[in-house]
Amino acid sequence: MIEFRDVHKYYGDYHALRGITGTIRPGEFFSLLGPSGCGKTTLLRTIAGFEGISSGAVLVDGRDMAGVPANKRPTNMVFQSYAIFPHLSVEENVGFGLRKDPRSAADKARAVGEALEMVGLKGYGKRAAHALSGGQRQRVALARALILKPKVLLLDEPLSALDKKMREQMQMELIKLQRQVGITFILVTHDQEEALVMSDRIAVMFEGEIAQLADPETLYRRPNSRKVADFIGTMNFLPAKVVGETGESVEIDAAGFGRFAIAPSQVMGGKTNEGATVGFRPETLTILFDGSAPSDRETAGTIEEVVYFGDMTYYDVRIDGTETAVRISMRNVFGRPVLDIGARARVGWSAGALVLFR
Ligand code: ATP
């Protein structure tokens, strides 16, 4: 649906996009995720045609967009600030883009009604737009974009102004809406959780480059660098050495965890002679209590911190023989004993759950 071919963008001397290459598939919910200033909005705007590119090519539906103005592209954009007209009614806002449409007034009114129903605003047509809540305004903006039947809907942090509860609700609704209309959605967000929850695939961007483009599970379980791993949630890093290698397995020696073998698919990055690092997500480690299900492997440590989160407890545990604590997250189950700071803990882990960066 969208293809970037070695896209570069300069603002004066500033190199904002540094060779973006990648493909977004038709009907996909795709997210551009990265920290502030990494270039995700700029990249989105190059699709919309609001931003020219310095070199390379952006193709939409197989067509090179060079020289095609924004209003002639099969794309439409929903902005962070709900760009709706406060002095118009909801239906006037939604029908705004149909002003020059040759259809009859009755047909247009039907289209407006359908669009409002799609975003959950059936019956709100006569309301004044300024009298709506933030979430409702964002729905109006969505309906207004969808009524034009774009092939691609571009969403620039559309939920960032909403409070947490509302944002989570709108995330679910957007997913449903995208499945229902079946068009390609491209979302810009700096919120990792939002991207993981909503996307079929995600491009993680740092400093004008795509660091990794993959589905949420691959990004989470097999991040291709420490930087991506750290940006997508929490990961524990421990120094390790590669002590042997065959085509089928890689033998590792990691402080506190001893010697063990992993699969080559768990190894990220090219071969370097620098020290390697193993990465564990906090939930892949577990504290073993009397009566716990047996774990693949076991090590031991001392609890340094306990943080209660309601459904979860985080334990920071210094594994024997290591210098820094690892974070272990445990789901709180009724009746589970709680360990205090300073207590000894048995730690269960599995070699299949970690990644090796080198
Ligand atoms: P945020 O989440 O903060 O919006 P972003 O990843 O979307 O960040 P962009 O808005 O794409 O980042 O900006 C990328 C870089 O390009 C930033 O360093 C920004 O300052 C710079 N930039 C963006 N627009 C312009 C412009 N019109 N002129 C000069 N520099 C710009």
From TrEMBL:
The keyword ATP-binding applies. Residues 2-232 form the ABC transporter domain. It comes from Paragemmobacter aquarius. Keywords: ATP-binding, Nucleotide-binding, Transport. One of its GO terms (biological process) is putrescine transport. The keyword ATP-binding applies. Gene3D superfamilies: 2.40.50.100, P-loop containing nucleotide triphosphate hydrolases. One of its GO terms (molecular function) is ATP binding. InterPro entries: AAA+_ATPase, ABC_SmlMolc_Importer, ABC_transporter-like_ATP-bd, ABC_transporter-like_CS, Mo/tungstate-bd_C_term_dom, P-loop_NTPase, Transp-assoc_OB_typ2. SMART domains: AAA. It holds the Pfam family TOBE_2. One of its GO terms (cellular component) is ATP-binding cassette (ABC) transporter complex. It comes from the Bacteria. This is Fe3+/spermidine/putrescine ABC transporter ATP-binding protein.
